[in-house]
Amino acid sequence: IPYEKQALILGITMADFLLPDNIIIQCDGDYWHGLIKVKNRDINQDFLLGFKGYRILRLKEKDINNSPKKCFKKIQTFLGEEK
Asked: What is the pTM of this model?
């Protein structure tokens, strides 16, 4: 799957991974993305990007570290919904 890492999206966010068809994968660190201010920012960004035609999948740091296979499955399922 082709992707661009650390892609600036419409001046709204820096996507960890931008895939074709406006799909964004964000890898959220537990500390920063656990802060209420950042959680609210993420919700607002996802809403704005969704409104502009992007689909966003967020993966949590603990899930990436504890079960990368489950995260991979989650990505496959998410991408499968596109077809």
From this structure: 0.90
Residue pLDDT, tens place only, 24-77? 999 999 999 999 999 999 999 999 999 999 999 999 999 999 999 999 999 999
Residue type, 17: F
**One-letter identity of residue 64:** I
15 within 8 A of 9, measured Cβ to Cβ: yes
As beta bridge partners, residue 23 has: 19, 55
The DSSP code sequence of 4-73 is EEEEEETTTEEEEEEETTTEEEEEE-TTGGGSHHHHHHHHHHHHHHHHTT-EEEEEEHHHHHH-HHHHHH
The DSSP bridge partners found for residue 46 are: none
